[in-house]
Write a structure and sequence with these properties.
The chain is mainly α. It has a domain of about 60 residues. The protein contains four helices and no strands. The chain is flat and about 50 Å long.
């Protein structure tokens, strides 16, 4: 690793962080190729993945780390509600939900800063 010099941390990150995860992702793609999307195992896996993601987002909103901790809770909750509303209104568009929530939290911070 010393031959890499300043790039050693990045090489280590790729080696132990990215590559082991990528192996499992590619294996999942290969194994899921012939599965029916409406099968019970796929519906269950999707529900579990959605629940985990919802839990992580909820934790980040309520117990925010870093700079987001300086944003008042009511601004974070309001931005989350607006993002959810945009997600539903724009035919389940994750992109629309993220854009609206980001704009809402940015606007809330600009209003509070003035």
């Amino acid at each position: 690793m010393s031959a890499l010099g300043a790039y050693a941390p990045y090489a280590l990150l790729i080696l132990v962080g990215f590559l082991p995860n990528e192996v499992w992702r590619m294996l999942g793609v290969a194994l899921a190729r012939g599965l029916d999307e409406s099968s019970e195992i796929i519906v269950f896996a999707r529900a579990v993945a959605t629940a985990i993601l919802t839990g992580v987002v909820g934790k980040l909103v309520i117990f925010s780390p870093g700079a987001l901790a300086g944003v008042p809770l009511w601004v974070r909750l309001g931005a989350t509600a607006l993002g959810l509303a945009a997600f539903v209104l724009f035919r389940r568009s994750v992109f629309a939900g993220v854009i609206v929530a980001t704009a809402a939290i940015t606007a809330g911070m600009l209003v509070l800063a003035s």
